[in-house]
């Protein structure tokens, strides 16, 4: 285009030069370039990526420019067609990971001369949804296609915190949120280190440790490399009826010298706005705040109940976060010596104490090297687990195993180390407890035990 502008400006300034200009002198290749520069170029689909989540499949198209698109659903055979106006595909769609997805094959072609048509052959019925996302400083424009499963049965939600069940000995439910995921890699460090991979590894190690901790039951907000919205993370924690929510991240800053781990809780301003927003949406929400249904309460009472819940939630978040920060201080340098507060959207649950742990600066070369190692990831997971366990040991929710143990004179249990020849049934008989109780107290799936393993022996 710059060459064309130059020709025109010279022609206007020097008619005598223009008289000598003969198009036969210009090569065919240059004429073709001049022709292409005079017409609009088609948008390009530069990359296509796919992730599988538990309830849907996401396909992301990276675009060179914004586009218009349409979606068509077809049967016999079942297909989903996406038409993208005035676009072309850079590479063939041959390397997408289609295993365990409802997509059996992907085809593409050009229709009506300029439009790109992509056909998804489907093996199951899905509910499609598309979103066109604008470019940001870090990303190109994107067309996001979500294929939601429709054959998954919606299981009824079992309330584990109801008054009727407060006399039980349930586990404390900890929701573990590995930040980012899927098309959102989070921050980046040296050697293509991605935040989403680092924090998922730490989250899995934390899950494994909590599974081995009697009285705790961890649940993963995301169990693989896929994206979950910030509100979706909170909603999943509430669906699991979590007693506590911990979101794991790795910090980044434009200066590589920034370093240190941090723990955040929701700000007071954020808590106030969250309570107001939740009340505004309560007719369409889960409606249970701290085990109390709000839909049948008048606005004043519902407001008081929600405000009380948010105040208690924030107090617990700050106190528990301080315990986790203290444990982290033993393995890493702290960015700040106290729990910080900010309006992170992922922390805005009205009745679930929530903290966000920044495990270090992935933008700092030294901390990035540590964060990339399995040993350091395990140390961080162990510190978080110790902080959680220590706090709940002295502040157990009603109806939990830890609350029952605390009610038994502060002990409630003994430890036994497995020796050669021991069996679970033999240990149960020796201490006059049932095998079922022994399994539940130690979070065992079966009767398998190993030499050197510690068992919690509850009082008979």
Short description:
The protein has 460 residues and is of the alpha/beta class. The chain is built from twelve helices and 21 strands. It is 32% helix and 26% strand.
Describe this structure in words.
The chain is of the alpha/beta class and 460 residues long. The protein has four domains: 2-37, no CATH class; 43-149, Immunoglobulin-like, CATH 2.60.40; 163-394, Zn-dependent exopeptidases (Aminopeptidase); 412-458, Membrane-bound Lytic Murein Transglycosylase D, Chain A, CATH 3.10.350.10. It has twelve helices and 21 strands. The strands form six sheets. Strands 13-10-14-19-15-18 form a six-stranded mixed beta sheet. Strands 5-1-2-9-8 form a five-stranded mixed beta sheet, with no helix packed on it. Strands 3-4-7-6 form a four-stranded antiparallel beta sheet, with no helix packed on it. The radius of gyration is 29 Å and the shape is globular. The model is unreliable at 1-26, 29-39, 282-292 and 300-306 (pLDDT under 50).
Distance between the termini: 86 Å
Strands of the largest sheet, in order across it?
13-10-14-19-15-18
Q: Count of helices? A: 12
Residue stretches low in confidence (pLDDT < 50, at least 5 long) are 1-26, 29-39, 282-292, 300-306
Task: Tell me the structural class.
Answer: alpha/beta
- CATH topology tier name of the largest domain: Aminopeptidase
Q: Largest sheet, described in full?
A: 6 strands, mixed
Note the beta-strand portion: 25-35%
- Total strand segments: 21
Domain count: 4
Q: CATH homologous superfamily name of the largest domain?
A: Zn-dependent exopeptidases
